Amino acid sequence: MSKTTAAITGINGWVPEYRLTNQELSTMVETNDEWITTRTGIKERRILKGEGLGSSDLGVQAVNGLLKKKNIKADEIDLIICATATPDLIFPSTACIIADKIGAVNAIGFDLMAACSGFLFSLATASKFIETGTYKKIVVVGADKMSSIIDYEDRQTCVIFGDGSGAVLLEPTQDGLGIQDSILKSDGSGRNYLGMKAGGSVKPPSHETVDAREHFIYQDGKTVFKFAVTNMADVSAEIMERNNLTGEDVAWLVPHQANKRIIDATARRMGVGTEKVMLNIQKYGNTTNGTIPLCLWEWEDKLKKGDNLILAAFGGGFTWGSIYLKWAY
Ligand code: UT7
Questions:
Q1: 215 belongs to the catalytic site
Q2: Which tens digit of pLDDT belongs to each residue from 271-312?
């Protein structure tokens, strides 16, 4: 029998209605549309409004839509992995909350934390459960309510991030399609440049940490940019080389949407033309774990069975990586 691989057999995305435009941001902090557009490529981002709503609510929308599209019931799911940097709670996991909310009574669930690379790391992890025959139906959901950890007085970060979610269904296949290869990397020395300073076990929440605004994202943008632009391009080139792929062979680059300049540099390094790059950063900004599935969802109609896709991401940790997959439908 031929090898079992994990194929994405369904995709869905979801974004909240509220659009926070560059124009509105320029009334909140010292910024302008021209700066944001030229430095990042972002025009607007979506914000989840309403009391008592968190990343699980974003995730539930994406997953419920996915189940409906695929015409499967929640109790058929074996495993839910939720990639999130903004869990509903430190514990229990957002995956367990999503499972409960959708009625996935037979699924086990856990969260995977790899910041902006979380969806990619989760997909690679999930693929191993399929390849080994452990599970047959896995949902990987990337969901982030980034607005919950953004300081809307900090112009360096508040212009970048938005809320959103996306989910894929992974199932086994023996026809050579699906996930072919993955390369994951991390370097913990990057923790000083991108993260949240308080709220964990080292510095639990206190009046002092709140006053010092340490429960928001901290990013040294310039340093992160330098690492991101090099590493995302390098790892994408590495996975192509390892699989004897040229730019011609790649149908689509599916990059994490952190900055259009990082995406352009990655595509150039891979020898992939801009017409083959999925780009929706202008509409949603950086939705952290939502970016890659939101791209796949928006481009679903254009994808053809057998298309070679390279997924690439870089994020806090630092973490970064690349996945090579053949689209399965
Ligand atoms: O997804 C996780 C991984 N994250 C990333 O990959 C993000 C990587 N970093 C970046 O994308 C970019 O570094 C940023 C978009 C965050 C910033 O762009 P930059 O070109 O690196 O700008 P900068 O931080 O070097 O700032 C340039 C200037 C500064 O002014 P001075 O010092 O030159 O006078 C900033 O104060 O732009 C100023 N600035 C702004 N001006 C208007 C910073 N933020 C803003 C703003 N509006 N929102």
A1: no
A2: 999 999 999 999 999 999 999 999 999 999 999 999 999 999
- Based on the fold, state whether residues 48 and 193 are members of the same structural domain: no
Whether 232 and 98 share a structural domain: no
Q: How many domains does the chain have?
A: 2
Same domain (yes/no): 125, 191: no
Residue nearest to ligand 1 atom 20, measured at CA = 39
Q: Which of 256, 280, 289, 295 is catalytic?
A: 256
Evaluate: CB of 262 within 6 angstroms of ligand 1: yes
- The predicted model scores a pTM of 0.97
> Domain range for residue 90?
5-178
Per-residue 3-state assignment (H helix, E strand, C coil) for the chain: CCCCEEEEEEEEEECCCEEEEHHHHCCCCCCCHHHHHHHHCCCEEEECCCCCCCHHHHHHHHHHHHHHHHCCCHHHCCEEEEECCCCCCCCCCHHHHHHHHHCCCCCEEEEECCHHHHHHHHHHHHHHHHHCCCCCCEEEEEEEEHHHHCCCCCHHHHCCECEEEEEEEEEEECCCCEEEEEEEEECHHHHHCEEECCCCCCCCCCHHHHHCCCCCEEECHHHHHHHHHHHHHHHHHHHHHHCCCCHHHCCEEEECCCCHHHHHHHHHHHCCCHHHECCCHHHHCECHHHHHHHHHHHHHHHCCCCCEEEEEEEECCCEEEEEEEECCC
CATH code, 279: 3.40.47.10
- Please indicate, yes or no, whether residues 27 and 83 belong to a single structural domain of this protein: yes
Report CA(156)–ligand 1 centroid distance (Å). 6
Residue 281 beta carbon below 6 angstroms from any ligand 1 atom: no
Q: Hey, which of 20, 22, 222 would you mutate to test ligand 1's pocket, going by the most ligand atoms within 8 Å of its Cβ?
A: 222
Active site residue 280: no
